[in-house]
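Repro:
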Amino acid sequence: MATANDIRKGMAINYNGDVCVVLDSQHRTPGNLRAFVQASIRSIKTGKSSDVRFSSSEKLEVVPLMTRKMEFSYKDGQDFVFSDPETYETVTLTPETVGDASNYLVENGIATMTFVEDKAVEVVLPSSVILKVTDAPEGIRGDSANNVQKAVLMETGITVQAPLFIKTGEKLKIDTRTGKYMERA
């Protein structure tokens, strides 16, 4: 058993008989009151998020997490289908579970998936991915002073600011944490 002070983002806890993933936690000590931990949690069964307050010394049961490398296979309607490269077992996730990672998923791209009780709860991408440019407008002549950039459309549908010399069909390295252009690949 851990105390509420020990919970961190990404951990899984047992809360009111339901396994929940901690989305965010903050330790607060208001003026002359007792310290508490304010946490945002998401239920694995229902998928609903809620904000809860724990006493800083309250005991919580931590549920073990398991991580596996998974390969993005394809998009089935709105859902995302991943497969384990070793066992070929498939996992289908909703857009809510995938979140912002959907902007950087390409076929056969590797992602780390976190499981709690055999249910996927989070998709973590590598720090950078290589994406192909599908549409890059021509740079305007004379626009070369002071690192001018243009908006280019990537194969996943996101728009990234890139230098003027980038053309359609090139591959770019994109930072998945910030969504910014890093370099040509």
